């Protein structure tokens, strides 16, 4: 096109070329909010590692065996289990969850000594840890097939479930299942702990013979100030509809379960499919699935069947990074043992954590004169 003999096309092209970088920058700037809105819906969220499929398959087979072995009531194994339970006194299954040497095995051996017919020991040791097996007879040969565990992941729940399943299969006389860590120590004699558990009146049941059901000793709370952040650690809505927020509970990682509740845990599929989901990496600081799965499951399935308090004393007054206070040798004394026993419930604490490995010798010195003198 020509006007007064001038060609306008080149000027128009130059204008378009000069404006192009500006338009591109403007478009990019305008697209940023769109990216922030759509990216979470298009890109998968970054999560912690999930439980390997083969581990799940192995566990499912184990849990089925445990469920079948416990058929026929709290005694387990149908009629054979009931007959054996009638012939054998009730036993306590001590379940140790560990990732390093069981340094307190000598102290536990003194605790167990003379009561061999009343307990069993089972140990889940992380395969990545090179453990020195304790020379004490109560722990020898009691290591169950284990899988890797990781903090802030449901692998710790899986490990506890494997221990429960192994104990259910092994002995139908196991009436209580005490989950402990390698840093736990006893606060009383075996005789005291055994009679405390067996003396509990239990809860009424609809059993034909009118027997009362034993209760489990597990902390169950809805008052944690960080409950909402813990609830959404896997995502905002992933726990629904099976676990609404108002039914989500918190509690201690360590507990004592009655046999019927141990069976309930290994038989569960409905709640496990929610709690086995990995937490978001952005919310890993709020991810403690092992402190929620067990109290939530028991509170939803059998709210009257638990004491709602734990028998394991933990000191959270100066916790760091989600870890409780770790006692050191200078702190070990008769007064400390007596203080740790105190409880807000009607029961004394039976166990305590967390103790450094160096505490073994001072604890052994107090064993006969203080710890087991009750």
TrEMBL record:
UniProt GO MF annotations: glycosyltransferase activity
Keywords: Glycoprotein, Glycosyltransferase, Membrane, Transferase, Transmembrane, Transmembrane helix
Residues spanning the membrane: 20-39
Membrane topology of this protein: Single-pass type II membrane protein
Superkingdom as given in the UniProt entry: Eukaryota
UniProt-annotated location(s): Membrane
Any Pfam family hit: Branch
Gene Ontology cellular component annotations, sorted alphabetically: membrane
InterPro entries linked: BC10-like (IPR044174), Glyco_trans_14 (IPR003406)
Protein name: Glycosyl transferase CAP10 domain-containing protein
Organism: Ensete ventricosum
